[in-house]
Amino acid sequence: MATHVVAVATPPRGSAAGDFWRRYRRSRLALAGLGIVVGLGIVALFAPWLAPYEPTGTSLDGLRPPGTAGHALGTDDLGRDILSGVIWGARVSLIVGITAAATAVFIGIVIGAVAGYYGRWADAVLMRITELFQTIPRFVLALLVVALFGRGLTKLVLVIGVLAWPQAARLVRGQFLAHKSSAYVDAARALGLPGWRIIFSEVLPNVLAPVVVLGSLDVAQAILLEASLGFFGLGDPNLVSWGGMLNNAQAYLREAWWMSVFPGLGIALAVVGFNLVGDGLNDAINPRLNE
Amino acid sequence: MGGGTPLWRYIAGRFVQAIPLLLGIIVLNFLLISLAPGDPVTVLLGEYPAPPEYVAQLREQFGLDRPLPVRLGRYVASVLRGDLGFSFAYRLPVVRLVIERLGNTLILMGTAMTAAAIAGVLLGVSAARRPRSRLDATATGASLIGYSIPEFWLGQLLVLLFAVTLAWLPAQGIRSTRETYTGLAAAADLARHLILPAAALSFRYVALIARITRASMLEVMHQDYVLAARARGADEGRVLWRHGMRNAAIPVVTVIGYNFAFILAGSALVETVFGWPGVGRLIFDAILQRDTPVLLGVLLLVSATVVVVNLMTDVAYAYLDPRVRY
Description:
By secondary structure, chain A is mostly helical. Helices cover 75% and strands 0% of the residues of chain A. The N terminus of chain A is likely disordered.
């Protein structure tokens, strides 16, 4: 009986994935986004081999323009190689972006599922908390938390993730509300499955698609927020990040445009990439929306 | 609109809902102070020298020897009295400091959002008139880029181009420091200083508003009443303005209203690039000077502002689109 219930809910696997890829592939923008994300992933992964210098290694060759021998993208005020900084920055941005988005989506799923499935007072309380977190300006709260509790990569991930969950929670809650009176949920309940099993192994797989879309858009937002904190001088002090490089560039705008242009391009490219992937996934999941 | 009563009842209901939200924000602020490493009194003071009498007074009010609920009660009471602490870096009460700066931030935000609304609606409507044209494709591409570029980097690029390279516009500040202007000349001077930061802040919202306007115009243009107007032989431009524009106001109101917190954050970042003396600049300096009372005060006041703006947005939305009131 139980297998029958599941079989109704999920179509045969192999063909679904193939279909999905065929629909995703149709959009040139979505493919470009995937290319950007994969490319940045490779740069981030192989940063130690790709970067010509240590990103924090200072030298006496300060403020050299791009094209200077040995420094394709120039150097900053302390003689640090911009290209190496941009390459290592990709690593920080992707790590923070992806893990923070995963944290946000995880919290959102748990809260949204509980609120949507159990309803009543659980829903009322959790949705008020969600509303509170949606109201508070995320950037100011993140600044305050980092300023009070100290900086560091793990803390950045936690702060950004913990502040970004409300959207996922609302989405998952809506999906659970729509699904909880479906026949397959009634059937699972009739079989006596416990609530947590119905939530995680029956309903969740069916509502995951839009959550994945939101997740990749969340990565873009997390990368932007990390860069903004870095620009305010609140990044991890031991790591070179794009936002931190732009903070440094601010004082040298008149002398060294390259200190601003290249790290900023990195941020824009990463954010565009994840936004395009998110849009592409969304169109591939809902083919009719594109018409 | 079915008489005035339902709208008023709706507004009153939203007001009541805003109160627990405001209390929640105060409690959250208190929790941050209490959970931060170190003595909460130090957190309330910041790392700036304060006179010992004031330290003693704070310790008496919020000291660790008091149980948590008592401290929470006293904190909420003092916030409700309008006491958000004292900044020893500026030697001013935090409330005065933040409200002074909030004015400059609102000038910047107001200018940027007015520009974004006008440009976004024009772009969105033009794109919707000829779907799949080159203009449409350009608008779509621009909105993707606008949505992805961090405002502060765009600000730096604008400085590089228009202030450093072309020397057309000032790169820093809110008014010229070399000369003192009065009357109209002062307004013109302010406007010159506003152009670049407002452009940097508005770009993202031009993109968003254009994107949503385009979508909602395309939807409206297929509604029966628009088809009917066209069938009656009404002029195309007239159809667009009479039937489309009321609907176009909704995306503008919602984009600006519900993104208010993000616009404020964007403003904070842009202010830092342009040395604009607003709240953002205040936060930036407070972080450098470890002036935590200012940060706490900004979070409270800015959150409260967001609650009020969201409330106003809901009301405006209910007025524009009667369907949202049940």
